[in-house]
Amino acid sequence: MSILAWNCRGLGSPPAVRILTDEVKSKNPILVFLVETKARSSRMKGFMRKLEMTQGIDVPRDGMSGGLAMIWKEGADIRFKSCSNSHIDVVVYDEKGRNPWRATGFYGHPDARKRHISWSLLETLKKQCDMPWVVFGDFNEITHPDEKLGWADRDADQMRKFRDCLSVCGLNDLGFVGSRFTWCNGRFGDQRTLVRLDRVVANEGWLANFSKAQVHHVSMAASDHCLLALFLRKKAPPKKVKKRFFFEAMWIRDERCKEVIEGAWDPLRADVDIQERIKNCQGQLRRWNHGVYGNVNKVLKLK
């Protein structure tokens, strides 16, 4: 299972559509979140059919810019909560309609002077419910200076406000595999700038369910943003450790033990090797012990 999130900078070019189609086929995501689609609803519907992800929420472009989409395959139990020009919020259920968790695609305001509106929105979304929650997308902000390379330094107050917002919402960065940065301004020399604007964050409840989740930064030739591929690896249930077999001394005093061993060993079957006979004998003794004594350790403890 995976989730894909990408600031595609428009779905008007054939390369963007082709590249995303290839990523969807190879990673088989349960959700795809797109930022800056710059597409009308009619075009998005055709694009969704091409991806074979015909269900979802489309926030149309505003003029010639913007546009968000969260899409998924028909049959997936995904329920819409809310949306705006900056987010799409859904709840994901398993195949039995249980174990819900919340997934929010997010787009931070591109104007730094208005980014406080984005943080207020995220804090409002947090207050709506306390279920396991993961948020992904282009936040248009960084948390520390080392998430930016080149050109002018990022405003320290801007970064602090973003960190404060994540802290208030109880959201932790999932880290990443791949390039340190997710966006490049495409320039060269002293004006070249690389920034980690795109990320995945989640609360403790979500991390407890998906402790093996991993984020990959995937370079995309059709956009100046990397695609985020969030691979959902659920926490594996603890493995049952098979107890070693021990022959209990108390069995010797029971005449039935000899009968069990002789029956399990079966000396007439010459085709069965010694290891198989030992294994069969252990199994027979375990079953006999359980039927006669129950849990032998409890019996010995009581004595």
Q: Fill in the CATH topology of the largest domain.
A: Deoxyribonuclease I, Chain A
Mean pLDDT: 87
The parts where pLDDT drops under 50 for at least 5 residues are 296-303
Q: What is the assembly state of the chains in this entry?
A: single chain
Distance between the termini: 52 Å
Looking at the overall shape, the CATH architecture of the largest domain is: 4-Layer Sandwich
Binned strand content: 15-25%
Order of strands in the sheet with the most strands?
Answer: 3-4-2-1-15-14
- How does the overall form come out from the CA principal axes? elongated
Alpha carbon gyration radius: 29 Å
Protein structure class: alpha+beta
Number of structural domains: 2
Q: Please bin the fraction of helical residues.
A: 25-40%
Number of DSSP helices?
A: 8
* CATH H-tier superfamily of the largest domain: Endonuclease/exonuclease/phosphatase
Which CATH C-level class of the largest domain is it? Alpha Beta
Order of helices and strands: EHEHEEEEEHEEHEEEEHEEHHH
Task: Count the E strands.
Answer: 15
Largest sheet: 6 strands, mixed
Question: What features would you describe in this structure?
Answer:
This protein has 303 residues and is of the alpha+beta class. The protein has two domains: 230 residues, Deoxyribonuclease I, Chain A; 54 residues, no CATH class. The chain is 31% helix and 23% strand. It contains eight helices and 15 strands. The strands form three sheets. The chain has a six-stranded mixed β-sheet with strand order 3-4-2-1-15-14, covered by helices on one side. A six-stranded mixed β-sheet has the order 5-6-7-8-13-10. The longest helix is centred in the C-terminal third of the chain and has 19 residues. The two termini are 52 Å apart.
